[in-house]
Amino acid sequence: MSKRLLSLAKVQQQAVDTGRTRLLVGAALMTLAFGAVGFRVVDVAVFGAGEPKRAHGQSEVVAARADIVDRNGLILATNLKTPSLYANPKQVIDPARTARDLVRLLPDLDPIETQRKLTADSQFVWIKRDLTPRKMAEINNAGLPGIHFQDEERRIYPQGQIAGHVIGYTDIDGKGIAGLEKSQNLALTTSERPARLSIDIRLQHLLRLELSKAIDEFKGIGGAGTIMDVRTGEILAMTSLPDFDPNHPGDMAEEAKFNRASLGVYELGSTFKIFNTAMALETGVATMRSGYDASQPIRVSRFRIRDYRGKNRWLSVPEIFMYSSNIGSAKMAMDVGTEGQIDFLKRLGMMEKVGIELPERGAPLTPQTWRDINTMTIAFGHGISVSPLHLVAGVGAMVNGGILRRPTLLAQETDAPAPGTRVIGEGVSENIRKLLRLVVENGTGRNASAAGYLVGGKTGTAEKATARGYARKSLISSFVAAFPLHEPRYVIFAMVDEPKGNKRTFGYATGGWVAAPVIKSVIERMGPMLGIPAVDEDSPEIRRALAVEDAGLTDQKRKKRDASF
Amino acid sequence: MSIPASVIPRSDTSLVGRWWWTVDRWLLMAILVIVAFGALMTLAASPSVAERIGLDGFHFARRHAIMLIPALALMFIISLMDVRTVRRLAVLGFFLSLVAMAAVLVIGSEIKGAKRWIDLGVISLQPSEFLKPTFAVFTAWMFSLWRTERDFPGHHLATAFFALALLLLLAQPDIGQAFVLTAIFGAQYFLAGLPLAIVVALILLGIAGMVGAYFTFDHVASRIDRFLDPQSGDSYQVDRSLEAFANGGLLGTGPGEGVVKNRIPDVHADFVFAVAGEELGALVCLVVVALFAFVVLRGMARLMAERDLFVLIAGTGLFLQFGLQTLVNLGSTLRMLPTKGMTLPFVSYGGSSLLAVALTMGIALALTRKRQGTGGTA
Which 194-223 residues of chain B touch chain A by CB within 8 A? Predict the structure, then answer.
């Protein structure tokens, strides 16, 4: 008996000893925990550790999205803190009354839908997002139980429509879903530094304004325009009309969302003769002094290639360019050959999407089987569809000394020439500049001549392809220009979709009548804006530098052409 | 001993006389300082809340002061009792609490989406608050019987009642209390001699779990948070709380001078420590943290010399509960833990929690009194 008691006492003693030892562990943990709280107090109160952190790429919390600014730092997209209204139906006492009060304060709410939300079996339903502080105060004053606000960041675009296509927009959760907002989504959400664009909002506004005037005047269905710096590839302005206000992405028409400048691909017509002539000069099949017989239309199987207001005689290469001869261009292309043409267009980037920072990029349409007839029509810009951006990038390479640069919408660190690929020699590029100048001085591009800025360019008037061949009355009228030609810096493109001729233009709706004046007005105001010095276009140095020796122009011929213009 | 002992002569053998000479006076002092601090903080924190909901400015401060009287009386009376009486009352209280918690699910009033309260007219009681201390005593009894009586399955009984209490808490739902209850139960089982192999296995399991959670943390944490508390996305109170600490700095803005406190809805209850942070500064806050730590560690140190297994386990459970409740409150105020709506013992406004914590400390004081021999284990 006593032995049993003794052993029991021993067991008890052991159990108590174990308990005591183990209690030490508990006490140690408690000490650590209280120590941690003490450290945290000092950390928060003295070292400011409590400042809200913005974790990178955090998706649960709407982190502040970086601003987007233009090249001069002007804000194009920023955030505004707005209250969003939600309800906790579990806390709503009288759903019917609450719904009535909410609809009274926010008339665009649907009464039945609102009441349904307030009776939902959940603890969180959005009622309406992005309210004004005034509405928030009114709703708070109504004192409705179960109705709460949460701060949200709303994206706003102070410039409205002006650069809508370029900037794009975000969805209601602040995720980029179009334009640069989409392509730069990662950078905008992980960096606090604003994204600085190559866009100059002044030029953007100017280009958009002039283009929309032209569309109005010629009753076009739309248009596109672009200004690029040929030394860096920076896009200074890019517009597509109709456009939209990214502040209200829900209100826009589908038609307005279409970016004609980068996503739309078109047969751009005679502007392609720039590439065709450069190709012929570069491969050596033609020189500035050689020429072709353009007296007879070319017949290939059932097709007939003719000239618009043709000269019906032998034409020199500069004349073919200046008079925009389809026959001469086609013959030039045939001399280079199909392989050579494909190769050249490939190097110019005309066979793939442009590498610009936009999700909305159009893939070119090229012939599936490349026959002679394709080679010939592509020489004057039919049978291949590219985006205006393709054209601008290509023309940039034609005039800047022969370097193709990737167009970009992000401002570059320096204005030193950006790296690129050589596509033609410097000599050929110089000749192309002379030819472009010739068109503006004496040819179809005279309406683009902004005095003092040495503008050169080429018109393009293409009939739109339909299912049943080409539509005579539906045109794509464009003009692509470069200036100042003695030191080429900018390429400008303007295009009007389906313009209709009017009295002032004697019924014409060609690129020379419709698009060239846009270029002229833009350059006339862009020059002073960017501080580009105007030059005396008739000074002997400049004349010599840009003169084409064998343009075949006599005074008499010039007079004759003027009469027909 | 620095506490004036001359008030009551050592020879006084009355109930109170014996109490004075056997109770842990350091512990008592620390608790009373915390109570005084709490009264001061309620005075500073509650006017803005009271005025916001259209009550007289000192409504909450006055109610808090009034509630202190029964609370302190309860603590005093319980601490007068001997171990056996305390245990009997606590076990009775435990079963009453269980019944009340079951009843709450049926007749309870719903506040903020959870059924936790029984409305008694004058005050509304939260039975789960009284469950925690009585549970700690009950399980300690079971565990000590398991170790000291042959063939008594005390640990199984303790586990069964733990499971029942946990279920009732999760049904309310009250995740914070469930967490504290689990911690108490685990610690008591550990103390009572849970085999080391199982302890090691549980630790390894915990480490594996944390490593696993690390890789999927963001996702898992956010999902779990949303499941447990749909409003956890709203960090408004905690953000303001941290702002209050930052505004207070090292020395504080001075009593009554806080401004951030006016924008914290629950500042008189769960976020009262933020007021201390703003008005009294980090240094005073450190003193307060030290005071709470002192209560817990002093209690545990006392228990370390204990020869009665029941007292050892029960006392640990009670001090652990006090410590955890403090840590969870301070932790959520300082955004070290998710907000779980737990009060700061003796400081936060709230009648139910004040009475419950007085009960906890009353039992703890009774158990830590000096006794003859091994005490009254039956």
Answer: 218, 222
